[in-house]
Design goal:
By secondary structure, this protein is of the alpha+beta class. Helix content is about 35%, strand content about 25%. The chain has a single domain, classed as minor pseudopilin epsh domain (minor pseudopilin epsh fold, 3-Layer(bab) Sandwich), CATH 3.55.40.10. The chain is elongated.
C-alpha cells in the first residue's frame, strides 16, 4: 500500500494514512450482473451467427464444386458428374442426401457409381458439420456444352436454427442460382 500524507493547517508534520484499493462487494456484484446480462444476449446471437456461417460455407463449397464440374465438362469436352459420397467417402452413392460430401467424376452418373476410383477428378468431403444438404436427384451431370442433365434444386439446411436455410436451383442450361427457400416443395423439416 502506498502511504498518503495529510497535513493539517499550520503543522509541518503530517499524519500517515493508508488508503485501501480494490472493489467493494457491491461493485463486484454489479459487474457480475452486467456480465451475466450481456452473456445471455450475446451467446444465442453468436450461435445463430455460427449456424448461418456454416450454411453459407457449405453453399459456397457446393456451388464451387458444381461450377468446377461444369467448367471441366466444357474444357475437356466430356460428360462430368457430381455425386454424393458414401459415409466413408470411398464411392459415390445413389442417394438424395449429400451430407457426407460430394465428388466431381468424369463420365455419367452410372460411371460415377461403378468406377469411382478411376474417374474421380476431385473429392470435396469437407463441408461445415452444422449444415445438411438435400437434392432433388442423386447426381448432377453436365455435358460437353455445360448443360445440366436436368433442372434440380439443392437445399442446404442449418442444423442449429431454422433461419439458416438456403436453396439453389440448377437450370438445364447449367446456371446455378439462389432461390427462395421452400420453392419446389423441398423443406428442411
Amino acid at each position: 500500500m502506498m502511504p498518503v500524507y495529510l497535513s493539517t493547517a499550520g503543522s509541518l508534520t503530517g499524519k500517515r494514512v493508508y488508503m485501501m484499493r480494490g472493489f467493494t462487494l457491491i461493485e463486484l456484484m454489479v459487474t457480475i450482473a452486467v456480465l451475466a446480462i450481456i452473456s445471455t444476449i450475446a451467446v444465442p446471437a453468436w450461435q445463430g451467427f455460427i449456424a448461418r456461417q456454416e450454411v453459407a460455407s457449405t453453399t459456397e463449397t457446393l456451388t464451387s464444386a458444381l461450377n468446377y464440374a461444369r467448367s471441366t465438362a466444357v474444357t475437356r469436352g466430356l460428360q462430368v458428374s457430381v455425386c454424393p459420397l458414401s459415409n466413408d467417402g470411398s464411392r459415390c452413392e445413389a442417394t438424395t442426401e449429400w451430407n457426407n460430401g460430394w465428388a466431381v467424376v468424369l463420365g455419367s452418373p452410372a460411371d460415377a457409381l461403378s468406377s469411382f476410383s478411376s474417374n474421380k477428378v476431385e473429392v470435396l468431403r469437407e463441408h461445415a458439420s452444422g449444415a445438411l444438404v438435400q437434392s432433388g436427384t442423386n447426381s448432377i451431370s453436365f455435358d460437353d456444352q455445360g448443360a445440366a442433365s436436368n433442372t434440380t434444386r439443392l437445399l442446404i439446411c442449418g442444423t442449429a436454427t431454422s433461419a439458416a436455410h438456403r436453396q439453389l436451383e440448377l437450370s438445364v442450361i447449367g446456371r446455378l442460382a439462389p432461390e427462395a427457400y421452400g420453392n419446389g416443395g423441398m423443406s428442411c423439416g
